[in-house]
Amino acid sequence: MSARASLRIALVAATLAAAPPASAQMFMDTSIYQPDMHMLNMDFMNQNIRNGMGMSEIPAQSDSAPMELAFTPDPVIRQQVIDAFVTDAVNGGAPEAAALWQMDVFGALSAALRPYGLETTDLGDAMTAYMIELHDAANLRSSDPSAATVSALRAQIEGAFAADGSAPVSAAERQRQSDRILLQAAMISGAKDVAMTQAPPEQRDAFQQAMVALGRDMYGLDLRDVALGANGFALQ
Question: Is 1 inside any structural domain?
């Protein structure tokens, strides 16, 4: 296990874990932490993972316009997303999420993600961070992927967006989706750290099974059978 937590999101996760009553139980209601997957072509993603397609094999976009996933952040939208997410999480049984109101969460996330070539101003980058955190949680580990590995997964995700052109058109909606996904990634990371270091075996196992189920709902795959490497996600 790397000395650095996965994608360095521990900068946020540590704050969440320190906010009592920290518990891996906070992830039993996984519906709060599942992104809106309608914007991704999951059939494309599933086949991509099963076939182990590399970056060079991802189909080019048929549309002449480039896929737009970046946005200029609006602080009003960002605060609205934080408020809505924390309220949903607390009401869903995760009081730890209230710690997000006491910190510069996106400043911490930006510093955490930038060494991996990811930004908090890009929907594809947010989904990449989320998928790595969910994969780690399903496997109960903290990985430290190379920038090249992260880039390969980012390319897979962009391909899934481009496959049916379903990414949000407006910059405001891209930000709303991206900001919420990054908060979900931070919460997964925090709960995983608690499960791995503090939770009794039965609670740790229940948390892992909840993350496996969440991954299966999204991909139709058991993430314990998926490896993250030079081609992004691929069945192992």
Answer: no
